[in-house]
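Entry 14. Ran structure prediction on the chain below.
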Amino acid sequence: MKTLYAHRGMSSLAPENTLSAFKLCVDHQVHWFECDIDILHDGTIVVSHDSTLDRCTDRSGSLFELKRQALDSIDAGSWFSDEFIGERIPTLDQLIDLMNQYRLNANIEIKSCDSNADAARDLLSGLDKALERLDSQVEYIISSFNPMLLAEFKKIRPQARVACLFETHTLNDDWHVIMQWVGAEFIHPQNQGLTREQVQMFKAHGYKVNVWTVNAKDRANQLFNWGVDGIFTDVAQRFPKGRRMVGKGGAK
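Output, structure tokens:
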């Protein structure tokens, strides 16, 4: 089974990491999406890729300095198009509700949480608590570029399936040691520079391989022919329906 993950939701059709971007997965029959989580000053966990507001909202400044009530006045959609004026930064609780409602599966990426260590611990414990509300029929993968956070989360929630993210320049000879240390089942390497030999090496070690971020259909086809299990893409709607509809249980 080969799986498409809608990167930050249907991020070419709606503002990334918003409820609208995730809901569009239903319309396009994409069963898996990817999103990012971080934490606010008051402990509220939100869906956001950046640690600042500047790129994807009508505000600037640090995400961590916010409290929950501030989210009601921050526009996370008008930068994308008029259709999404008033779109909000979602909370993790809202994300879980959406996953349960639409039976959508998610790869949830834990951001490195550059505010402080206590906030990082709160992020992990809050994620664990939120996942308790997830319907048993809904699947998830927890990923991060920070293996320390992943290893700690695996201790908190041993049943979680976790994935180590690697950029091309961080994929060193010790990659398998990091994977073993974390207890990861998935490796998520960067698309740029990834070779068939590397994919074969990952598979020979028994890992599932999901590659980010792949927007060209011919490259995706090549990767799948090499044995890759899934790809993250910004343009899931452009792929053949047969590819998009795969994914219910496809990450297992």
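The CA atoms of residues 13 and 21 lie 7 Å apart. Will compare against last week's run tomorrow.
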